[in-house]
Write a structure and sequence with these properties.
14 helices, 3 domains, Rossmann fold, homodimer, Dihydrodipicolinate Reductase, domain 2, alpha/beta, Alpha-Beta Plaits
Chain lengths: 430, 430
């Protein structure tokens, strides 16, 4: 008897067609490693009218009920994206004792708990390696390879669009708008880029990573989010001058007292940080644990075949567990219930860029204003503008609470000599 | 009933004591993730006479028979190192239906096939994550997370001692001998550093990585090895000038025609390669696959707790499989039998540094000699020495077969104007 695992794929977009392609091209390798063939019996599409040469030879359907009713299908691979009907389909698949593999960060970030509960109740797998970091192995390594650790930090470049844009801005000394247009022309940014540039995509991944790393459910709504829309060529020049690079990071920290500090925002990252050299559309996730120290996982954060690499790895795992009679072997690891640290209580160093009147004594007034809000400064740069009697002051603070920097900025805005607080960006240390 | 898995640890050196420490300090976390406690019932030591405060509370023995005879012990963790008696103990443990976890690169590289056969015959696990890259998750990610790929390249900085030395030589413009002394003083290099600096340690890891990546057994004796002992401060300066950094790499490639190209040697690595920024004692493994594209795994390559992180992850996996009645779920993946590409047939670019007579026309003679051996040059630098009428010529070749560069060097040595072929180092592209 030839062992065989029969699956269905929901969705034939970028990731769906990539998954079908990888399963076909690497069929022999996958079968040898698993000890069984994987057969795609059905592919669910929205419309049967559109020609799909890449699905030739596959049984294409627009009716999910056919898949649910088919007892031969033991693994359902959801690659449609979006909350509905993906969530409903996955719950129905699990209720029908089919294991589920998904790349759907929206559902995992918003409904992870429900999904895990359904998997456990039905004794099936719910696997989602592809939901974070595209092809980068990160979910299984966090859950399994680093399981000996109490993890204290997970920090990642998890959005390729914004990393491409920031890398380009630094390389070409270009401004935000021109780089966004270029990214859109190259297909790296969508026509409506808001989910990427405003940090929401990264926030979903931050919630997923933190939930796994810290054994406690973190929801999208727990994540403090700032995007990159306010970053200027100017900020990037100052970063270089000060020995940093600008990155949009998803940062999760398990603090001993305050709970989980979870946020997405741009940072000034020291050039010797392992994440600093991750350029272009690549992603990387940096992890700190009490046994391993630090580790980093690097690779392509998106794309048809890289994401399919992660999806097919999960399919192989789900198939192996079905063959072994061991579906559901890895349980949900959110067995704790840690509080979320309010953003006001989080501690960071800050870069602050101010436009001020170019008068003697201004620097002193500004330094005093920072000091009065209990914000001590690490360095200050003042540059003169040739016209209009204005100067730019760039201050980098020592580590302070968010509420203190906010009160310093409020006081600065009230000063006559301050024309504008132009930007405020967090500064990471190594 | 409280689930419990009972284990024995063989060896109480750096990794053994680290493993016991991690299991103790992170016991609650590990138990929550696994759903069972892990209890270290016995620790095997060479001599009972030496005081070992770190093993207080553990049952210490110098008799392996006690461990074999103890039916309660279901997982044996071998952390003694060396071939004997480690190999024998592991085989006996598996014969007694105990799963085995090891950090022993010597045994895995030299006797991997025998170990896997024993594991399969006895229906137990044989796990060895810690044998390559210390705390870096790489064996499980290669076997599982990248299982959807046909992997074509695995390339790593897998020896921390030599990476520390090369990093130091570059940073301080220091020479080999002084950096080796410093590394020895800091405990990064051993009194007899030969296994590290001559590349043998890296070669064992190269054999293990290539075996897993390419599904075909690669033995230590298959690996072509050059160490770093001939690298001078001079070479590192030229590397910088040409836009490279010098690294000792373990390189495995699965070539479509010639078989597995497997070697360890220093390389000139372009600064924009993901491995180029891996400095000091850190390790990293870079992988190329036909779905994922490229991925990299970075972290601490050695040390008590980092290595214990990998060992304990394997213990958790072995324990889970014992609890599930599924020990041996991951089979040996060396199901192919690929030839090894002879070193003469391998293709590289080369950096060649020559000491020549400083006479007009020398460069022409040398370029012609390269050309006559079918070696075409990409760039040539000539520098004059102030004394003794000698000049240094540095040539970088295009990609050529090893046998061609060797024949070029032989002809160069015969020339009157060539005083010495000072070094030859391979050059990698991105």
């Amino acid at each position: 008897m030839v062992n065989e695992i029969v699956i269905a794929v929901l969705g034939a977009g970028t990731v769906g067609s990539g998954t079908v392609k990888v399963l076909k091209e690497n069929a022999a390798t996958v079968a040898a490693r698993l000890g069984a063939n994987i057969r795609v019996k059905k592919v669910l599409v929205r419309s049967l009218n559109r020609p799909r040469p890449e699905l030739n030879g596959f049984d294409v359907t627009d009716n999910f009920d056919e898949i649910i009713a088919d007892d031969e299908i033991s693994v359902v691979v959801e690659l449609m994206g979006g909350i509905n009907p993906a969530r409903d389909y996955m719950l129905r698949a699990m209720a029908a004792k089919k294991s589920v593999v998904t790349a759907n960060k929206d559902v995992v970030a918003a409904h992870g708990k429900e999904m895990f509960a359904a998997a456990e109740a039905n004794g099936v797998d719910f696997l989602f390696e592809a939901s974070v970091g595209g092809g980068i192995p990160i979910i299984a390594p966090l859950k399994l390879s680093l399981a000996a650790n109490r993890l204290t930090e997970v920090m990642g470049i998890v959005n390729g669009t914004t990393n491409y844009m920031l890398t380009k801005m630094a390389q070409d000394r270009a401004d935000y708008d021109s780089v966004l247009k270029e990214a859109q022309a190259k297909g790296y940014a969508e026509a409506d880029p808001s989910a990427d540039v405003e940090g929401l995509d990264a926030a979903r991944k931050a919630a997923i990573l933190a939930s796994i790393a810290f054994n406690s459910r973190v929801e999208l709504s727990d994540v403090y989010v700032e995007g990159i829309t306010k970053i200027t060529a100017n900020d990037i020049e100052y970063a270089k001058e000060l020995g940093y690079t600008v990155k949009l990071l998803a940062i999760g920290r398990d603090l001993p007292e305050q709970g989980i500090d979870i946020r997405v925002h741009p940072v000034f990252l020291p050039l010797n940080h392992p994440l600093a050299s991750v350029g272009g559309v690549f992603n990387a996730i940096f992890v700190r644990g009490n046994a391993v120290g630090e580790a980093m996982f690097y690779g392509p954060g998106a794309g048809s075949l890289p994401t399919a690499s992660a999806v097919v790895a999960d399919i192989i795992e789900a198939a192996r567990n079905k063959l072994d009679g061991n579906a559901g072997r890895i349980k949900c690891t959110c067995y704790e219930n840690k509080p979320i640290c309010p953003i006001e209580e989080t501690v960071s160093s800050y870069y602050v860029r101010l436009l001020v009147s170019d008068k003697p004594g201004v620097l002193g007034v500004i330094a005093t204003t920072f000091g009065n809000a209990a914000v001590s400064l690490k360095s200050v740069i003042q540059t003169q503008r040739e016209f209009d009697h204005q100067a730019e002051i760039v201050a980098v603070t020592h580590a302070v609470k968010y509420k203190n920097i906010m009160s310093a900025l409020e006081n600065l805005r009230r000063l006559d000599v301050v024309d504008e607080v132009q930007n405020m960006i967090r500064v990471e240390s190594v």
